[in-house]
Amino acid sequence: MIPAEFDYVAPQSLDEALQALAQGGEDAKILAGGHSLIPLMKLRMSQPSLLVDLRQLQDLKSVNADNGQIRLGAMVTHHRVATGNFGLASAAAATIADQQVRNMGTIGGTLAHGDPASDMPAVLLALEGSVVIRGSSGEREVAANDLFEDFLTTAVGEGEILTEVRFPRLEGYGYGYEKFNRRQEDWAMVAVSALVKKAADGTCEDVRIGLTHMGSVPLRATAAEQALRGQPLTAESIASAASHAAEGTEPPADLNASQDYKRHLARVLTRRALTTASE
Amino acid sequence: MAGSVRVTMTVNGAQQSAEVEPRLLLVHFLRETLGLTGTHVGCDTSNCGACTVHLNGEAIKSCTLLAAQADGAEITTIEGMGQEGALHPLQEAFWEHHGLQCGYCTPGMIMASADLLERNPKPNEEEVREALAGNLCRCTGYHNIVKAVLAASEAS
Ligand SMILES: Cc1cc2nc3c(=O)[nH]c(=O)nc-3n(C[C@H](O)[C@H](O)[C@H](O)COP(=O)(O)OP(=O)(O)OC[C@H]3O[C@@H](n4cnc5c(N)ncnc54)[C@H](O)[C@@H]3O)c2cc1C
Ligand code: FES
Ligand code: FES
């Protein structure tokens, strides 16, 4: 399978890249790792007229983990996130596809793309992180909660570049990541990210649960979070909270899983992820 | 109308340069432009790993990379791993442990394994299986492939 024809540039600076995008018009596209875009182009489901490759922008490959705040350049690969010791984010990145895909795919690419089956969006949501987006008129920071708008639709607009991903280290939180698929390199049928902060008396001081592939965008399991907050972190209270994990969700059914089965998976995986996060 | 781009890269230690269409995939650059047919195309959809080569020392699937993305890079293919009479330890081990039947997946298996051993010289069985999750084999049932990689890790 061969993509349709396009022009290609690999600018040396972010400003040049923004300029190239602007000149390329609405059919110009950013190329990061290419591991969502090139397969789509080979299937001719995407036919950009111009690709603006970010591979030469060294600033977008930086990792900064000072002061409890982690800042990753958009071009940091899944492999570097997986091996970077960033808690939940590393655990989730390590489950993406396979080693070869993790060596090319980038955190900025997956977040800008907004595939509801992809792993990192719900992780960023649970971490209450944000992204930095640059356009010709300047830079803005967008919270994870406002980033994912719909299926494959994010707040990254035409002519804009996602440059950085930010999230707190969350000292004192345990985490768990549970992903269900049939084969190791498959996308998640459902995945659950859990973060739990234990109070001195062993009760749950704070909890955050992110759901992957339970809607057209990543979701927080707010009913389950509310049910656990302030409760003792026992097997019973975790199971009881997890039984609320699918409340209010309308997961997309597909060949692998019906809506009901996905709701079942969300409850089971939430229980497991909370259990790991509470240990 | 789309133009062409000049790509220059080091392939198995030798500098190569060509004027190519931006849409040319790296695997086709290697196989058709350079005649290095050791790298195979299995699925053409980034799943099977038959097209695995190293880009600046890391295993990647060359059916999902533009040749243009590899401009300025160092590429290693199976042809760069060893020669007849002086095989790479992984190639020796695949031979010795019968890690192949038809051999179609083998170049990709060896390149993915070499990436693993670079990062983790003494992997356990689980780590080997995990590292080869992106490489499919329709013949062997994987057992002897895993054995071969473990043997190569002990040999070096
Ligand atoms: C076989 C296979 C299995 C996979 N399995 C999984 C999986 O289990 N879980 C998972 O999460 N992902 C999976 N992926 C997807 C992979 O993680 C992709 O790498 C990722 O989704 C996209 O990142 P990229 O850097 O490759 O982006 P690209 O493919 O280069 O770009 C994707 C889209 O985002 C835009 N874009 C990219 N970067 C930016 C930026 N900085 N600013 C603005 N726009 C940008 C592009 O224009 C394009 O529209 C899989 C991919 C393959 C090929
Ligand atoms: S041919 Fe590239 S992964 Fe199958
Ligand atoms: S040996 Fe035939 S595909 Fe692996």
UniProtKB/TrEMBL annotation, chain A:
<dbReference type="InterPro" id="IPR036683">
    <property type="entry name" value="CO_DH_flav_C_dom_sf"/>
</dbReference>
<dbReference type="InterPro" id="IPR016166">
    <property type="entry name" value="FAD-bd_PCMH"/>
</dbReference>
<dbReference type="InterPro" id="IPR036318">
    <property type="entry name" value="FAD-bd_PCMH-like_sf"/>
</dbReference>
<dbReference type="InterPro" id="IPR051312">
    <property type="entry name" value="Diverse_Substr_Oxidored"/>
</dbReference>
<dbReference type="InterPro" id="IPR002346">
    <property type="entry name" value="Mopterin_DH_FAD-bd"/>
</dbReference>
<feature type="domain" description="FAD-binding PCMH-type">
    <location>
        <begin position="1"/>
        <end position="172"/>
    </location>
</feature>
<dbReference type="InterPro" id="IPR005107">
    <property type="entry name" value="CO_DH_flav_C"/>
</dbReference>
<protein>
    <submittedName>
        <fullName>Xanthine dehydrogenase family protein subunit M</fullName>
    </submittedName>
</protein>
<keyword id="KW-0285">Flavoprotein</keyword>
<keyword id="KW-0560">Oxidoreductase</keyword>
<dbReference type="InterPro" id="IPR016169">
    <property type="entry name" value="FAD-bd_PCMH_sub2"/>
</dbReference>
<dbReference type="Pfam" id="PF00941">
    <property type="entry name" value="FAD_binding_5"/>
</dbReference>
<dbReference type="Pfam" id="PF03450">
    <property type="entry name" value="CO_deh_flav_C"/>
</dbReference>
<dbReference type="InterPro" id="IPR016167">
    <property type="entry name" value="FAD-bd_PCMH_sub1"/>
</dbReference>
<keyword id="KW-0274">FAD</keyword>
Automatic annotation (TrEMBL), chain B:
<keyword id="KW-0408">Iron</keyword>
<keyword id="KW-0560">Oxidoreductase</keyword>
<keyword id="KW-0479">Metal-binding</keyword>
<keyword id="KW-0411">Iron-sulfur</keyword>
<dbReference type="Pfam" id="PF01799">
    <property type="entry name" value="Fer2_2"/>
</dbReference>
<dbReference type="InterPro" id="IPR036010">
    <property type="entry name" value="2Fe-2S_ferredoxin-like_sf"/>
</dbReference>
<dbReference type="InterPro" id="IPR001041">
    <property type="entry name" value="2Fe-2S_ferredoxin-type"/>
</dbReference>
<dbReference type="Pfam" id="PF00111">
    <property type="entry name" value="Fer2"/>
</dbReference>
<keyword id="KW-0001">2Fe-2S</keyword>
<dbReference type="InterPro" id="IPR036884">
    <property type="entry name" value="2Fe-2S-bd_dom_sf"/>
</dbReference>
<dbReference type="InterPro" id="IPR002888">
    <property type="entry name" value="2Fe-2S-bd"/>
</dbReference>
<feature type="domain" description="2Fe-2S ferredoxin-type">
    <location>
        <begin position="5"/>
        <end position="81"/>
    </location>
</feature>
<dbReference type="InterPro" id="IPR051452">
    <property type="entry name" value="Diverse_Oxidoreductases"/>
</dbReference>
<dbReference type="InterPro" id="IPR012675">
    <property type="entry name" value="Beta-grasp_dom_sf"/>
</dbReference>
<protein>
    <submittedName>
        <fullName>(2Fe-2S)-binding protein</fullName>
    </submittedName>
</protein>
